[in-house]
Write a structure and sequence with these properties.
heterotrimer, A: MetI-like fold, 12 helices, B: alpha+beta
């Protein structure tokens, strides 16, 4: 926290406080826009999400529609990223593939966030044996062979989107729980929480209204790194033969198909891999930028 | 029906990894003066070791020159192996083989007629398979006296119709005349018909078959290292009676995502490439000259799946569906030339060219008319049709293509339903609850004479017979039948009788007539009848044959004597010791 | 310290139980009975196993106690693992699982360890270079490449490496395992993402040390950059790096599953991937537990090393917030 803000909180002047908050958001925004990396990252993420969400409208073809007169075509005006071995438009399939990847990436992160926040906040706030039990659980889950557990889940429960999502989230929530816990521990010690507690606010209120908003920074950073990690895990599953069932296009499956045709039709690999890398890089850049923003120590 | 069809479902589903005596030789050359050079090839493998007494992929490697039987295939056709000459009795039922006196196992022991007797008994004895932890050999190609009974466990292995007249004279007693016996002995699935050293084998445990130092074989090569699912190394058998040509053969059981990469990198001298690699190979003159297309005996087929809805039981519907699949386009374009259209489940066109005569042509207009005639004008009212396939890491392109062809040509709703192989097989016999479905099937076939039904009951108890016929039962009867075959507590013999009985009494007449025709052809050894049997299946569209893989194989130009074994989907050489490297 | 180790071992045992319960539960909850899957192993094996004699089937039932209630099955599973009696698996009925692991696991561990070692060394070097040249083009270029490294998954890097070194230049093997040179590309593919994240970590932590008061005093006493970095700051920055190594190794072990498949390496990862696809329950359960134990032991070792080096932690007895 910067000096102006702590001063305000000491004075407790409501208007000033709001003003300071607003200016602090504005400062963050200006920091974000000045941070070129974060900005580029944000643009890339926006682009990827846009393609995924509006795949129906943007895509020139239906994703399953085969055209036996134009198999394995290179990029052209009618197929800007080329076609695959059934003459299906790659751009279209990549858009829909991005949709699956985003659903798993964001969805799993949402699950991780929910579970992680619940466990982390509870542990830190309650402390004592609750903390001890929950953190030992977190340690135990952290020692799970995560990718193997995901593979088992997908094998046992089927290769469909919701399963993939859960399979990816199943073990990765522990990272989030640790981040949340350490943040809550930090914030819990501050004066305003002590004040809120002394005024009789309930635990839930304190966690939701005071602690979490103040612990947000590192959590947001963790989220922006968590999403691409989930996407990688999802594509990784496809590479060991556990990708989403066709006909739903899946970037991982497209990559492993593209890998087989790399020698003859390189665009069948370059397209999906390129877009995938853009997605991953976008989140990484954004996460880096956000970390710089929240992390006052390493600010230049 | 003749057996050997056990490979049926597996082969193609596992994705193109899975044999003629006709000439597909690459080059032939004179033998060098001593063992020299090494050769590294791709072949399908598994992890159960090299026991010839269980039915594994490694059994095929055994048959290519790790073990050597009475005769073997070579780049010059069938040639004498351990037997130097043979004769048949007048009635054709007793075969006498005279063995060479200088054949030795890799431990130095002499190969005698007693070792053949022991080897054959081991293969027929069901306890051997239990001991070695695997499925039983396909012994039924050989109509040897008491063979069926010994394999069923009802007679002792010592009653098997094989005999050592003296140390170097071996006799086989048959239940019926078998004019193709010598040819059949060279089939990969007959890899069990080899001599075994009783001294060694009797003291071996199942694990020992994966331990090279414990494996004793009589072929030109012996196993010197083995990593399950990965690779094996073969080196010359020091006691082999003839010259062994190569210093080392490496069998690679894995390949990276494209065989072309492995070939270019030098990891493999023989690599099966992806269809999508062909364009890259064609653009490189050196590679292009090293590319060969070998026919295979595997047939990619779609079978009717059992369903509440009987839409597919109408022959008109099946014909309409067959007519709207463009098999030429699938072979030439989708598979990029790595397939040839198939017209019947059991008869690949390269082996049985006559089958093409009655082929159902690609004709979408006629198909629409047939569908309308069947009561579904413009596809209206037709139930949702699924194509169930078992797949590996990438989807089944051919099934996806057929899905689009049906949808585009007939206006019906078609679903591609790819499942992991294990799920596909474990739900294989389950009835479809909504709509109708085809399920993918793949065969590894042999000579048409060996594919004929030997009797109605026998046919209805083979995997293939069941796959084809049972879905044509009314659903309530089907579930009865399914209960019987799933009943593990029933004695096998009773179970088979009951299952066959249900089928015989409830199948459509056309199917039973067709099977009886086949039995007649088998009993009379009549070629015209045999052809009629296969034609009839084609006309009735009991299943939808799609394509026969045409394996694109790169073989390094300095490798000579490679004649592909087309009865195996991975098209290894017919005999390891034909291969030389310059 | 002794109490701390005892406590950690106790927690490890609890974690181990949890992993075993979860895997066992998943196997039991899976659709399709064990026996059906045994009959229909799927893939290339289906053919051969359709012929499985009933005797063999019965031996499976006996071996895995399939006719007993679930807790009995669980007990034998756990007992078998702990006493190292892994038995046989369905896919490898003639090869004891123990010897299968002995054949394959060393390769996987070797892959993960060498990737960790190479990754750590390269990361330290790159991190130091970037930190010393803070805010110059050297720093920004190195860090940009590192970011690319973290963002691009190892299986994509692997394909590029295969093409460049295996096909275009043909200087390295890309298939199977016959010698140490077969390790190079797989390790490289695994290392690049590791270097990406660890070198950034190293740089930031070194910069932090370099800006701290005690380093200023080194300069004040007339010490140079070299002395400041190698004499003082580096030591302080290496310590936190150790905490990152543990999780990285766990991540690498998981990465080997895909990499082994790509390069056709006969490691445990490939065995597991096969087992998962074929639903080979006994093999899946044993290998999952094995991986879990390795990861737990690694974490313990890392924590002990860290605790041994950092006096503050030695007292608290637990690494907080990791």
């Amino acid at each position: 926290m910067n000096r102006a803000m702590s001063l305000n909180s000491v004075i407790g002047n409501r208007e000033q406080l709001i003003g300071a908050r607003a200016s602090s958001w504005r400062r963050m925004w200006s920091r974000l826009t000045k941070n070129r990396k974060a900005l580029i990252g944000a643009i890339m993420v926006f682009l990827i999400v846009f393609l995924a969400v509006f795949a129906n409208w943007i895509s020139p073809y239906a994703y399953q529609q085969a055209d036996f007169t134009s198999l394995n075509q290179g990029p052209s005006l009618s197929h800007i990223l080329g076609t695959d071995s059934l003459g299906r438009d790659l751009f279209t399939r990549i858009n829909y593939g991005l949709r699956s990847v985003c659903i798993v990436g964001f969805g799993a992160e949402f699950v991780e966030l929910t579970v992680g926040v619940m466990v982390g906040a509870l542990a830190a706030y309650k402390g004592g044996w609750v903390d001890n039990v929950l953190m030992r659980l977190v340690d135990a889950v952290a020692s799970f062979p995560s990718f193997l557990i995901s593979m088992i889940l997908v094998t046992m429960m089927g290769r469909i989107l919701p399963v993939m999502l859960l399979a990816v989230a199943a073990t990765s929530w522990v990272g989030m729980a640790r981040v949340v816990r350490s943040q809550v521990l930090r914030v819990r010690q501050t004066e305003y929480i002590q004040a809120a507690r002394s005024m009789g606010a309930s635990s839930l209120t304190i966690i939701l209204r005071y602690i979490l908003p103040n612990a947000m920074g590192p959590i947001v950073v963790a989220v922006s790194f968590g999403i691409p990690a989930n996407m990688m895990a999802e594509a990784g599953l496809s590479l060991v033969g556990l990708g989403i069932n066709p006909p739903t296009p899946d970037l991982g499956v497209m990559i492993s198909e593209g890998q087989q045709s790399i020698m003859s039709y390189p665009w069948q690999l370059i397209g999906p891999v390129g877009v995938f890398i853009i997605a991953l890089l976008g989140f990484t850049f954004l996460g880096d930028g956000l970390r710089d923003m929240f992390d006052t120590r390493s600010r230049r | 029906m003749a057996k050997g069809m056990t490979i049926a479902k597996s082969a193609l589903a596992a994705l193109t990894l899975t044999g003629t005596l006709s000439a597909f030789a690459v080059t032939a050359s004179a033998a060098p003066s001593s063992s020299s050079g090494s050769f590294s090839m791709y072949i399908i493998g598994d992890k159960r070791g090299f026991s010839p007494d269980i039915y594994t992929w490694s059994l095929y490697a055994d048959s290519l020159g790790i073990f050597e039987g009475l005769v073997h295939n070579s780049d010059k056709g069938v040639v004498p192996g351990i037997a130097t000459s043979w004769s048949t009795s007048k009635n054709g039922k007793v075969w006498t083989f005279h063995l060479r006196h200088n054949a030795k196992f890799s431990n130095g022991d002499a190969v005698t007629a007693q070792d053949f007797v022991f080897g054959f008994q081991q293969a027929f004895n069901p306890n051997t398979a239990v001991k070695d932890g695997g499925g039983m050999d396909a012994t039924a190609f050989l109509p040897v006296v008491n063979g069926v009974e010994v394999a069923a466990g009802t007679k002792s292995p010592s009653t098997l119709g094989v005999k050592a007249v003296n140390n170097y004279t071996f006799q086989i007693m048959l239940t019926r005349k078998d004019p193709t016996l010598i040819q059949d002995l060279t089939l990969p699935a007959m890899g069990w018909a080899v001599p075994l050293d009783p001294k060694v084998v009797n003291s071996m445990s199942a694990t020992d078959w994966t331990t090279p130092s414990k494996i004793v074989s009589d072929g030109p090569y012996m196993v010197s290292s083995f990593t399950p699912n990965t690779s094996a190394t073969l080196v010359p058998n020091p006691y082999y009676f003839n010259k062994v040509k190569l210093k080392k053969i490496t069998l690679n059981y894995t390949a990276s995502s494209t065989g072309l990469v492995d070939f270019e990198n030098g990891a493999l001298d023989m690599a099966i490439i992806n269809p999508s690699d062909i364009k890259a190979v064609d653009s490189n003159p050196t590679l292009k000259s090293e590319l060969h297309f070998f026919p295979t005996a595997a047939q990619y087929t779609l079978d009717v799946a059992p369903s509440q809805n009987n839409a597919l039981l109408n022959p008109l519907v099946r014909k309409a569906l067959m007519m709207s699949i463009n098999r030429d386009l699938i072979s030439k374009d989708v598979l990029q030339g790595t397939g040839t259209p198939a017209y019947d489940y059991m008869t690949p066109t390269w082996l049985d060219p006559w089958i093409k005569k009655n082929a159902i042509p690609y004709d979408p207009t006629e198909a629409k008319a047939l569908l309308a005639q069947a009561g579904y004008p413009g596809g209206k009212g037709f139930p949702t049709l699924s194509i169930n396939v078992g797949v590996g890491s990438t989807p089944d392109l051919v099934a996806e293509a057929i899905q689009q062809m049906w949808q585009q040509n007939l206006g019906i709703t078609v679903k591609y339903n790819g499942m992991p192989a294990s799920q596909f097989y474990s739900t294989y016999n389950n009835p479809i609850t909504s709509g109708v479905a085809f399920r993918q099937n793949a065969s590894n076939v042999v000579y048409p004479q060996l594919e004929l039904p030997t009797s109605v009951v026998a046919f209805l108890n083979t995997g293939v017979g069941q796959d084809w016929t049972a879905p044509y039962l009314p659903m309530n009867i089907y579930t009865q039948w399914q209960k019987v075959i799933a009943n593990k507590s029933m004695p096998p013999k009773l179970q088979q009788e009951q299952a066959a009985n249900i089928l015989i009494h409830n199948l459509p007449k056309s199917i039973l007539q067709w099977i009886r025709l086949g039995v007649k052809a088998y009993n009379t050894n009549n070629t015209a009848l045999m052809k009629q049997f296969f034609y009839m299946q084609e006309e009735q569209v009991f299943d939808l044959p799609i394509y026969t893989p045409l394996q694109p194989v790169l073989i390094r130009s300095n490798v000579h004597g490679y004649k592909a074994n087309s009865f195996l989907l991975t098209t290894p050489p017919v005999w390891f010791n034909d291969i030389t490297v310059s | 310290m002794f109490m701390y180790i005892i406590k950690r071992l106790f927690y490890m045992a609890l974690a181990f139980l949890l992993v075993s319960i979860v895997t066992f539960g998943l196997m039991k909850a899976a659709p399709g009975t064990f026996l059906i899957n045994t009959q229909m192993l799927g893939g290339v094996q289906a053919a051969t196993d359709l012929n499985i004699p009933p005797q063999l089937m019965n031996s499976f039932i006996k071996e895995f106690h399939l006719n007993s209630p679930w807790y009995v099955q669980y007990w034998f599973y756990l007992k078998g693992f702990v006493t190292l009696h892994f038995g046989y698996s369905i896919e490898y009925p003639s090869l004891p699982t123990m010897s299968l692991i002995k054949r394959t696991f060393p390769l996987t561990l070797g892959l993960a360890f060498s990737a960790t070692v190479v990754g750590t060394i390269v990361s330290i070097v790159l991190g130091v270079i970037a930190a010393v040249k803070e805010h110059t083009w050297v720093d920004s270029t190195t860090m940009f490449i590192a970011t690319l490294g973290t963002a691009i998954p190892s299986y994509v890097t692997a394909i590029v490496l295969m093409l460049v070194f295996g096909v275009w230049w043909r200087i390295l093997p890309i298939l199977g395992f016959q010698g140490i040179q077969h390790y190079i590309l797989p390790v490289a593919a695994l290392v690049i993402p590791v270097v990406g994240s660890m070198s950034r970590y190293m740089r930031n932590s070194l910069i932090e040390s370099l800006h701290s008061d005690y380093i200023v005093s080194v300069y004040a006493k007339g010490g140079g950059m070299r002395q400041a970095v190698f004499g003082h700051a580096l030591r302080n920055s290496l310590l936190p790096l150790i905490t990152v190594v543990g999780p990285q190794l766990a991540g690498l072990l998981m990465g080997t599953v895909i990499i082994e498949n790509l390069f056709g390496l006969p490691g445990m990862g490939q065995v597991f991937a096969n087992a998962a696809q074929q639903k080979d329950y006994p093999l899946i359960m044993v290998s999952t537990l094995l991986y879990a134990v390795v990861i737990m032991v690694m974490n313990l070792l890392v924590d002990l090393t860290y605790g041994g080096l950092d006096p503050r932690i030695r007292k608290i007895g637990y690494v907080q917030g990791r």
